[in-house]
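So, does this match?
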Amino acid sequence: MSVIVGVPVERPGAITSTLRRWGIRPRLRNLELLLLLLAAAALTVGWISLASQQAGRVTTGDPSVLMVYVGVLLVIHAAFVITGRRTDQVLLPVTGLLGGLSLLLMARLPQGLATQDLGSITLGLAPLQLFWLGLALAVLAVLAIVVRNDDWLRAYKYTWAAVGIGLLLLVFVLGDPTNGARLSLRIGPIAGQPSELLKVILVVFLAGYLAENRTLLARASTRLGPISVPPLPYLLPMLGMWGIALAVVIVQRDLGAALLFFSVFLTLVYVATRRRAYVILGLALFLAGATALYFLFGHVRTRVDIWLDPYVDPLGSGYQVIHALYSFGRGGILGTGLGAGLPAVSGTPGDLPAIHTDFVFAALAEELGMLGALAILALYGVIAERGLRIAVQAADDFRALLAVGLTMVIVIQAALIMGGNLKLVPLTGITLPFVSYGGSSLLANAIIVGLLLALSDRGVEPPPPPSPRRRFLSRGGSR
């Protein structure tokens, strides 16, 4: 302890001094800690309610799964504090609350719905989901802490796109067929869907290309009837890369991913150019493509017919949608309570198939009610608000477009699956981010949130200076 003008001053501790020598200055994150504690309290109440309903008396049951999960969130918060990153303090608590709701649902469901053998240990649905959530949160934290600049993303956009498309093509050779489609790639005991990773890679490519050529793309020089389009040499590489990815996904019959890619592509093009003509042209192409797919692919025609009238075959193709609607009706405003809804999921009448993947929103809406469903919707609204805020505060076009694209991936994906459960849109087969069971989906969405956190850091390295060519094009566009 030293004395300055008669006032005792504590010297920094050894750990703090060491961190400062490494350029790390710890910084408190009070808002994030408060929100994490509120999320932990809400999840604890939900766990007690679920355990008490299952036991028939007030009890906490075995809270080890929830305690481990909350501990992982607090460790990540401590890592953020120690490293001193000035990143967004809302995204982690919101993501953690969505993952906690997923754990509550997986603990409610029969554990045999998904299992994984790890040596002599067999993990059931809830422990397996905890494993993937923990791994996803670790990836999120590493990206948020380690990523200090985006050169490795913007400089290799074509390489990333080629890797993503290569993974999809590899599925044709080594993929596991599911319902007539090859969607998963298995390496040893682990299987995943490359389309989940492709949605991140495609956003990186589109953001890089649009940021580099937005001035030329915004200046129309060719007319196709009443619509003005930019020079084709600048438009074709972007359309070609996107078209290849979309065609591969359509051939694989993963139409949910195809619709997601198209929506994100159209959003980024409009944000970069602010030309409504591109939106009109894109919607026209979408309607033409959707009509063609309806007549070319039987499974597309089946999904559209189910969407229009599921009661034509209530015990067959329309079974899932009908019982999802029944789940919303049974939940009412306040819900049946955690553990008090959802049939046994054992093949008996009233069961909801694919309840841990495609219909998690209907399952939670039954037990949490309309208010709970609106709360889940609000959580995705918060992710949208924080992501767009990060985009507005970005230092350059690439970071702004990247933040918009990553945010729209989560928001559009959530909208598609919730709309499918409510029969507002046809079922697409994609997952609800951070809530549905699935390792590849959790990891891909964790990468998205981790990159958003890295982009939100107010102390991140500045973007590289523009090249002479880009500076000349920018001046020409302004004039």
Notes: The mean pLDDT is 82. The two ends are 62 Å apart (CA to CA). Residues 360-392 form the longest helix (33 residues). Residues 358 and 431 are 6 Å apart (CA to CA).
